[in-house]
Every structure is written in C-alpha cells, then in structure tokens.
Design brief:
- It is built from 3 helices and 8 strands; from the N terminus they run H-E-E-E-E-E-H-E-H-E-E.
- By secondary structure, it is an alpha+beta fold.
- It has one domain.
- Strand 1 and strand 2 form a beta hairpin.
C-alpha cells in the first residue's frame, strides 16, 4: 500500500473514531433523558408469576408494554459472576416489547427488533417509566434485565439501565435458569451489599 493510501486510510479511520465518540456522547445523554409518559397499568399472571404492565404509546402512536415480573429464585438458580456472597431470593425482572407481541405467542418478543425508528423517544419514555416503578416500589431490592444476544442492542440497553439504576443500585453480571443460563444484569440496592 502506498504512503498516500495509508495516510488516507488513517485519516478516514480517525474521522470515524471521532464521529463514533461524538455519537456515543449524544447517545449517553439521550439515554439519561426522562420523558414524562402517560401509561395504563394492569396486572396479570404469566407462568404463575405476578406481572405489572405499563402500557404506553409513542408519538408515532406505537404501543409498548413495559413489564415487571415478580420473580422468586431457589438456591443455585442465580450465579453472580463478581459477587458470590449475595443470595437472590426475590427480584423484579424488567422487559419491554411492542404491545402486539403477546408473550405466550412469541417467546422471542424481547429479542426481536422493533425497527420503529423511535429509539430515542422510546428510551426516554422507558427511563421515565422504570424510574416511576422504582419510586413506587421502594421495597424492591433487586432488578434483573436479561441480555438479548444482540451486541449493539445490549450495549444500548446496558447504558440505559446503568443511567436509571446507578444512583441507588450496584450492577452485577450473572446467570440464571430463567434466562437459560445466559447472562443478565442484576441491579442490587446498595443498602444490601
């Protein structure tokens, strides 16, 4: 490769790096933004577990369900990779999907992409609603968010959840039988560590 081509390649690489850094700064700022959101709350039982559902709409009139599963674990069901002394008995698992994807009809509804081109608004609304739930349920000590398997999506979700939980909760990675022994994030209230 000639020197001018190497220089051009290096310049393009540096430009992409700068653009990615700026996009990441904006993304983190957006994911830390909370957008007040009206929602309808309902409750139902899924797999013998109580679930609280916050149903809401975006400005594009797409409907989403944010679900909070009250989960109970037995010894050995959860393995924390970096905090083995905490035994998790009760936790609230968080998931969201479009309303038209019923859990019983589509087991992949959390991992499928929505492709609605409204991710910034959606994440701002999720930020607001998850914070709302946390404030309404101060007795919940542990929240769980499973990985989707999509690296880009998981990175965005991790940033969103870290922004929501970072003040009062510590983040631990772990595996659980509920996630087929795949990784999940465990947000554990700082007062019980």
């Amino acid at each position: 490769m000639s020197q001018p081509m190497r220089d051009e390649y290096r310049a393009e690489f540096n430009l992409r790096k700068i653009i990615n850094e700026e996009v990441n700064k904006v993304l983190i700022e957006v994911l830390d933004t909370s957008l007040s959101t009206k929602y309808k709350q309902s409750k139902r039982i899924i797999n013998n577990k109580p679930v609280t559902i916050y149903r809401f709409r975006t400005s594009n009139n797409n409907s989403y369900d944010l679900e909070f599963y009250e989960n109970t674990y037995n010894d050995g069901d959860v393995v924390l990779h970096n905090k083995p002394k905490i035994k998790i008995k009760n936790a609230v698992d968080i998931g969201f999907t479009t309303t038209n994807r019923a859990i019983k009809d589509n087991p992949n509804n959390y991992t499928d992409l929505t492709d609605s081109n409204e991710q910034f608004e959606l994440f701002s609304r999720l930020n607001y609603l998850i914070s709302e739930y946390i404030n309404q349920h101060p007795d919940v000590k542990i929240y769980v968010v499973g990985y989707t398997g999509n690296e880009k999506k998981d990175r965005i979700y991790n940033t969103l959840y870290k922004n929501i939980f970072s003040k009062d909760f510590d983040l631990y990675k772990g595996t659980s039988i509920d996630y087929n022994d795949y990784d999940a994030n465990y947000f554990i209230k700082k007062e019980i560590r």
